[in-house]
Design goal:
The structure is a homodimer of 150-residue chains. Helix content of chain A is 37%, strand content 19%. Chain A is of the alpha+beta class and 150 residues long. Chain A has two domains: 87 residues, Orthogonal Bundle (Arc Repressor Mutant, subunit A), CATH 1.10.10.10; 62 residues, Ferric-uptake regulator, C-terminal dimerisarion domain (Dna Ligase, domain 1, 2-Layer Sandwich), CATH 3.30.1490. Chain A binds a DNA duplex (25 and 25 nucleotides) through helix 4.
DNA sequence: GTAAGTGCAAAAACTTTGCATAAGT
DNA sequence: ACTTATGCAAAGTTTTTGCACTTAC
């Protein structure tokens, strides 16, 4: 265990030039405990430990964190934005079209070849995000059950 | 030129079991003319030819089309949903983090290897969508200009 | 002490829904 | 004729903003 191991949220907030407050730490801890949470879910979780917190403060905090690269924002089709603390590795997401479940997947290819679009149209590309869409095991099972009973 | 060439919107609507109305055709034509348009932009365009159209009708139409696979919906981070008529090929998108510009890119790899996540967690994966995020040429130029004048 | 963060409240932005009328098949 | 789509209006949900007060630095 050296000083290079996982910096704490306090350290990362300071490094980003953001002040350290109990609300912000509560938000970040809630996201660690429940990845892919929506603003509403983060609010519900943090309200248990910090009762005075408000939903607007959550939105502001999450927005600040995204802007400073402490967390990542996901925009699933047709549902509220979700947030996650895994920002360092380039991992991707499986999303269920039925129930909206989100699961992390590591990049299929070792390095980051997805980082090279065939033609970049003059863009300076920073990241490539891959979203696999389909049906999750639970929803598959439910669909099978419906067919079987018909 | 055979009967297999690009089916018209009228044919595709009928094939999907949807009725053919001037409003729907206006919406689809507007999307053809202006890919990646938001509901608001589609409304502005269609209102020029069909003045009696309303924004709600646009939302309903777009929702119906997405449900029947006639168009695709994109959910860029922090901005309203956008729609496109290119559904057959698996192409991807470049998005500018500064101005929100969206540009189509063909799949980097010939086939569809992006269709295979390293571990599918039991999902039945249907499609893989790749979003390259970065800065578009215009915003890069603007940033350079700011630096130069400082 | 100063700048940044927060609670509170209000509003903006985006999208969906219900019902009577009109239009497509 | 029957069913589906539309206009109109209203509401729902998610997110942003303004201002006074508090807190971290």
């Amino acid at each position: 265990m050296t000083a290079h191991d996982a910096p704490t949220w306090t350290e990362r907030l300071r490094a980003a030039g953001l002040r350290v407050t109990s609300r912000r730490l509560a938000v970040l801890d809630a996201l660690d405990a429940h990845p892919h949470a929506s603003a509403d879910e983060v609010y519900a979780r943090t309200a248990q430990t910090v009762p005075s917190i408000t939903k607007q403060a959550i939105y502001v905090s999450l927005g600040d964190f995204v802007e400073h690269g402490l967390i990542r924002r996901l925009d699933p089709p047709g549902s509220p934005a979700r947030y996650e603390t895994r920002t360092e590795d380039n991992h991707h997401h499986l999303i269920c079209d039925e129930c909206g479940a989100i699961v992390d997947v590591d990049c299929a290819v070792g390095e980051a070849p997805c980082l090279a679009p065939s033609h970049d149209a003059g863009f300076s590309v920073r990241v490539a995000e891959v979203t696999y869409r389909g049906t999750c095991p639970e929803c598959l099972a439910r669909a099978d059950a419906l067919v079987a009973q018909s």
